[in-house]
């Protein structure tokens, strides 16, 4: 009986060790002259998102007829400041009443060109293709207020290593059940 408990505890620990599947959030924001369509891919963290949790991104920016593509780490950088960006399994949210920001910019952070910036009580500015989603209407901003959903999860698919761990865990559960049944029958 103790052996079955230890095996069940081992299976529970194995299943708890399965990493969260990456989540891709589709983004589509804009107005009559500005637009950003693309995605933000996280490591699967649920709750507050930091810079390290964002593993990839892509935005087709349109600013008054001029276009530019932020193609993840290939040609741009990202930074998240404050606890204003949060994730659930189905959505990505930004709190525009906070003081943080989520900035995706080419060629690097601080270059003042080619960016999309979600910002609370502040301003992202500069020249080039820029889209500032902010609480103010400064420059080329798109005004927002409070907690807003900025992205929607699209097709969460576990990675192959997650599937392997899950299958191994179910195999162990089955083995424990068969062994318990054999012990009870004897």
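^ structure tokens above, recovered residues below v
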């Amino acid at each position: 009986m103790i052996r079955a408990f230890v095996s069940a505890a081992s299976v529970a620990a194995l299943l708890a060790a399965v990493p969260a599947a990456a989540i891709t959030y589709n983004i589509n924001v804009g107005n009559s002259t500005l637009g950003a369509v693309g995605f933000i891919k996280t490591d699967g963290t649920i709750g507050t998102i930091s810079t390290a949790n964002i593993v990839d991104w892509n935005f087709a920016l349109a600013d008054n007829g001029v276009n530019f593509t932020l193609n993840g780490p290939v040609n741009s950088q990202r930074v998240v400041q404050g606890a204003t960006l949060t994730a659930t399994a189905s959505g990505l949210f930004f709190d525009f009443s906070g003081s943080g920001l989520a900035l995706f910019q080419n060629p690097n952070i601080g270059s003042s060109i080619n960016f999309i910036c979600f910002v609370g009580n502040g301003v992202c500015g500069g020249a080039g293709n820029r889209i500032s989603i902010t609480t103010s209407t400064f420059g080329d901003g798109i005004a927002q207020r409070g907690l807003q959903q900025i992205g929607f999860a699209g097709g969460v698919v576990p990675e192959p290593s997650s599937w392997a761990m899950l299958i191994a865990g179910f195999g162990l559960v089955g083995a424990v059940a068969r062994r318990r049944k054999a012990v009870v029958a004897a």
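Confidence is low (pLDDT under 50) at residues 1-6, 9-18, 134-139, 156-163.
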